Amino acid sequence: MGSVGLTLAWGNRISPVAAQGVRRVDAPEIEEPNRATDTVREDAALAAGCLAGDMCAYERLYQLQGARMKNLARNLLGSPTDAEDAVQETFLKIQRGIKGFRGQSSFVTWTFRILVNTCHDMRRSRMRRKEQAPDNSEAAPPPEPRAPGAHPCLRMALERALITLTPQQREVFLMYEVEGFHHAEIAALLEISETASKNTLFQAKKNLRSMLEPPRSAEAGGAR
Amino acid sequence: MNVTCADRERILRDGTPEEWEALERHAVGCSECSVELRAWTSLSRAAEELRDYREDPALWPKIENSLRQSEQGQGEGRRFWEKLSVWRGIPVGWQTALAGVLVVVLGVSGIYVVTRPPREPSQTKLLKNSALAQVERTEREYMKAIDKLAADARPQLDSPTSPLMASYREKLVVLDSAIQEMREEAGRNPSNAHLRYELLAMYQEKQETLREVLETKQ
């Protein structure tokens, strides 16, 4: 597969020193017992507060997860405006559906599942709108500009490459690598098995790598 | 732990921390694994570029507003169901009896609606009391005027000098008979507007015939 958009040699993009610190292995969680208990307690308190209709609980949920929710929605939908709408809609769905929360997953995982489903719905309705009024734009809209990061070229190349992945590969990659979810959480969020989540991530990274990698001939020519 | 190049893909897919450490040690002396490992970790680093957790102070007020509006709507819906929940406080025996009565009432109403005789279309046009009084008053005045006209034409009609006049006389006799019948019918159904229109048409016909009789005289 050819490269998409900007291609940079791997060595140019990230310094080996920085890259060494990035390895993330989804090993069984070994958290401090007190911290784990606090997390569970906070999750339960949030769920109870939201169930009671306490606006402070919703605000706390927003403070804890709002930015992460908006970031995930923005990466899934490619538009900050749509992302805000998705987050707002998600909060409304939480309010309407909190009575149906049975505690089978954590409350936060449940809220993210609602967010992902909301993004799916929005994407579907956007595609329907496009079918009704076809134009010459691409199948997936190019992401709107955002705040410049440390490697804007790399970010743009990655965003373009992400568009070409399958929806599930894109979602798993974004949830694992960008939002920092564990495979168990992704499995609960997307209603797939943990193994499927791991395999999908592997495939996504393999595809991204082949898309972002400079052509082998150029690399070989450069080496000569 | 010792790993080889053959283990690389499995470790990248689902390796334990120990296996990753072993792969990193192996990559120091293996250029192929070194390139692969660096590319793999570089992707994770690149993914950080897609993380934008900046605060958005405008978003929460919007969400809060929509939550409060939705809560208000839900509250109204709840109050309606709470009113209905009074039903639950009634003993089951009474609930059954009330439900039975309701079923009987609905059944009887249904049977009545299905089996009642169809209404005549003429009965659908009913005049209200004030309108009826006005119609009867106007009718009386109209009849007086026609009677006056009939009095003028009576000499010609009583002794017709031509077949035409005899035919006018015949027509007026038929009209008077029909008017009489229609007036009796209207007397039985005074609010029936359709009968009133029929009667008016007959009076108009009589008036027209009398006018022709008088014109023939001249």
Secondary-structure blueprint:
The complex is a heterodimer of chains A (224) and B (218).
Chain A: H1 10-13, H2 16-20, H3 33-51, H4 55-77, H5 80-97, H6 107-132, H7 152-163, H8 167-178, H9 183-190, H10 194-212, H11 216-223
Helix pairs in contact in A: 3-4, 4-5, 4-6, 5-6, 6-9, 8-10, 9-10
Chain B: H1 8-14, H2 17-28, H3 31-47, H4 59-84, H5 92-115, H6 129-158, H7 163-188, H8 193-217
Task: Write a brief structural summary.
By secondary structure, chain A is mainly α. In chain A, 69% of the residues lie in helices and 0% in strands.
Account of the protein in words:
The complex is a heterodimer of chains A (224) and B (218). Chain A has 11 helices and no strands. With 224 residues, chain A is mainly α. Chain A has 2 domains: 33-132, Orthogonal Bundle (Rna Polymerase Sigma Factor, Chain: A), CATH 1.10.1740; 149-224, Winged helix-like DNA-binding domain superfamily/Winged helix DNA-binding domain (Arc Repressor Mutant, subunit A), CATH 1.10.10.10. In chain A, helix 6 (107-132) packs across helix 9 (183-190). Chain B is mainly alpha-helical and 218 residues long. Chain B folds into 3 domains: 5-48, no CATH class; 59-115, no CATH class; 123-217. Helices cover 77% and strands 0% of the residues of chain B. Chain B is elongated and about 145 Å long. The model of chain B has no long low-confidence stretch (mean pLDDT 83).
